[in-house]
Amino acid sequence: MEFNITVENENTLSITEAKFILEQAEKTLKETGDQSQIIVARTTTLIVLISGLLIGIMAFMVKEIGSESKMNDIMFVCILGSIYLFCLCNKMIANISGHQYYPLGTDPKTLFINDFFNAPNMEIRQVWFYITEIKRCQSKIEWNKNENEKRWKKFNNHLKYVTWTAPILIGLYGIIHLLLSFLQE
Fold this sequence. Notes:
By secondary structure, the protein is an all-alpha fold.
């Protein structure tokens, strides 16, 4: 939904009011950037946790292979668990890279609008500049909030997948153990 300021509000808006609105918009825009950093930090923590689990499982598998033990149900679970954790880690990396966010401020070339400089007086010109920046802030806020919402959703899903890792691996162990014991009979 596009944000519009009515002509009546534009015509009655004072410079002080415009400054106040812009200050509030900039605070909100800054908050969306801060939220992005929180998402990155929490996702990075999950990636480190999963990497530790993955390294532990791999170390166990190398130890088992080194001791020349035969392929058993635990090794199958380790292999499947490693694949699961590796895929999960790769999906999480996408949540911390390559996201477009809009920062505070506007490029000067965007503010050099000929009509503004043709305004009847300096006060009207200043109000127009503020209104333009307020509108730009609003669209940036909406974009950033939308990006953050998508990234929080991904983070929460990944957190659920991490939480379910142990039950999944235990279930796999049970299934593989039953299959192998059935095949050995």
